[in-house]
Design goal:
Largest sheet: 3 strands, mixed
Mean pLDDT: 79
Oligomer: single chain
CATH superfamily of the largest domain: SLC41 divalent cation transporters, integral membrane domain
Number of domains: 2
Strand content: 5-15%
Strand order of the largest sheet: 1-2-3
Order of helices and strands: HEHEEHHEHEEHHHHHHHH
Number of strands: 6
Low-confidence stretches: 129-159
Distance between the termini: 75 Å
Helix content: 55-70%
Shape: elongated
C-alpha cells in the first residue's frame, strides 16, 4: 500500500503498525552480487525507476543500500559488499505509521525499509506514488539543490543573491575575491622567479592565459563530479580511489588532446620545435595535477567538517592556477634551458 502524505489520516489509522501497510519491493540484492549483475537484471525489468536499492544477505537480513549512482560510477565486477552503505534508516514492523511518516518527512525519503526482530527485510513503506505531484516536487527540489551547488562553487548562494544592499553583497563576496587575488599575486611572484626563461622564450608568455584557462576548466569539472560523494553521509575510500584513478586518466587524455591542438595552432606561424614540445608536456602535466586537486579537495574539506560547496570553488580555482603556473614554468625551464 502506498501512502499519500497529502491526505488527512485519522489517529487510529496513524497508530496502526507499519506491517499492515508494507509494499513489496522486489529490487533487493545480495552482498555477493556484482554491479554488472544488477544492471543486467534492471535492464530486463519494466516499470518505474528507483533512486536506491536495498542490499540483503543470504538470510534476507538487511545490510544497507546502494544508489543508482553507485551502480553507474563503479566497474561491472564491483561487488555490492564493497560499495554498500550500511547506515540505512529502517523501521520495525510493529512501529506505528505515524513514526514512519516522521522519519520519512525529516530525512526527505520516499520509502523506508521494514524489518522484524532479527533485522530481516520484509518490504518497504512507500509514501509518494511515482506518478504523483509530490514526486515531481521532490524532483524539483533536487534540481534546486543542484542549482544551489553551482552557485556555491563560486562562493555564493541563492539566499545571498537576495541581499538587500550593495554593501551586504560586497561584504560577503569580497573574501572569495581576495582568495583569487592572493592566488593571482602568488602566480605573479612565481613568474618573477622564472623571468629569465620568459626573456629567452617570449612565446611561453603568450600561452599562459590559455594554459591557466584549461587547467581551471579541468579542476572545476573534477570538483563538480567529486561533490556528488558529499550528498551521502559516509565517504567510501574505495570509491574515492577509483574516482582518482579515472580522473587522472581522463585529465591526461584531455591534456594530450588540448596540447596537440595548441601545437597545431603554434606551427601555423612558428616552426621552432623545442618551445612547443615544452609547452605540450607542461600543459598535459598541469591539467593532470589540476584535475586531481579538483577531485580531492572537496572531499578533504568534507573530512575536516568544512563546507566544501562554499569553500571549494574559489580555493580550487586559485590553487589550480598556482599548480599550473608552477608546473608550466618549471618544466619549460627544465626542457629549454
Amino acid at each position: 500500500m502506498k501512502i499519500d502524505p497529502s491526505e488527512r489520516f485519522s489517529a487510529k489509522f496513524l497508530e496502526q503498525p507499519v506491517k499492515n501497510l508494507i509494499s513489496s519491493f522486489p529490487l533487493a540484492f545480495t552482498l555477493k552480487e556484482t554491479v554488472g549483475d544488477i544492471l543486467l537484471r534492471l535492464n530486463r525489468m519494466e516499470g518505474r525507476q528507483h533512486e536506491y536499492f536495498y542490499v540483503i544477505d543470504n538470510d534476507a537480513i538487511l545490510q544497507g543500500i546502494v544508489t543508482t549512482k553507485d551502480l553507474i560510477y563503479n566497474p561491472p565486477d564491483t561487488k555490492l559488499i564493497d560499495i554498500v552503505d550500511h547506515e540505512v534508516l529502517k523501521i520495525h514492523e510493529t512501529e506505528p505509521l505515524e513514526k514512519a511518516l516522521k522519519i520519512l518527512t525529516h530525512h526527505h525519503l520516499l520509502a523506508l525499509p521494514v524489518v522484524d526482530n532479527t533485522n530481516k527485510y520484509l518490504g518497504i513503506i512507500e509514501v509518494v506514488p511515482p506518478d504523483s505531484e509530490a514526486f515531481h516536487i521532490s524532483k524539483r527540489q533536487h534540481a534546486k539543490t543542484m542549482k544551489e551547488d553551482i552557485f556555491q562553487f563560486i562562493g555564493f548562494s541563492i539566499e545571498q543573491r537576495k541581499m538587500p544592499s550593495s554593501l551586504s553583497e560586497f561584504r560577503y563576496r569580497m573574501p572569495w575575491l581576495l582568495c583569487n587575488l592572493g592566488g593571482g599575486l602568488l602566480c605573479a611572484l612565481i613568474g618573477e622567479f622564472f623571468q629569465h626563461t620568459l626573456q629567452l622564450f617570449v612565446t611561453l608568455a603568450l600561452f599562459i592565459p590559455l594554459v591557466l584557462s584549461l587547467s581551471e576548466s579541468v579542476a572545476v569539472q573534477s570538483m563538480t563530479i567529486s561533490l556528488r560523494f558529499l550528498h551521502f553521509k559516509k565517504i567510501y575510500w574505495g570509491q574515492v580511489l577509483r574516482r582518482c584513478n579515472v580522473e587522472w586518466k581522463a585529465s591526461l587524455l584531455l591534456g594530450i588532446g588540448s596540447a596537440l591542438l595548441i601545437a597545431a595552432f603554434y606551427f601555423m606561424w612558428n616552426t621552432e620545435l623545442m618551445p612547443i614540445v615544452a609547452i605540450v608536456i607542461s600543459v598535459t602535466v598541469s591539467m593532470v595535477g589540476a584535475g586531481l586537486f579538483g577531485a580531492l579537495f572537496p572531499i578533504l574539506l568534507h573530512l575536516f567538517k568544512l563546507d566544501p560547496k562554499v569553500a571549494a570553488g574559489p580555493v580550487v580555482l586559485s590553487t589550480a592556477d598556482i599548480i599550473t603556473i608552477t608546473i608550466y614554468y618549471s618544466l619549460t625551464t627544465a626542457l629549454l634551458i
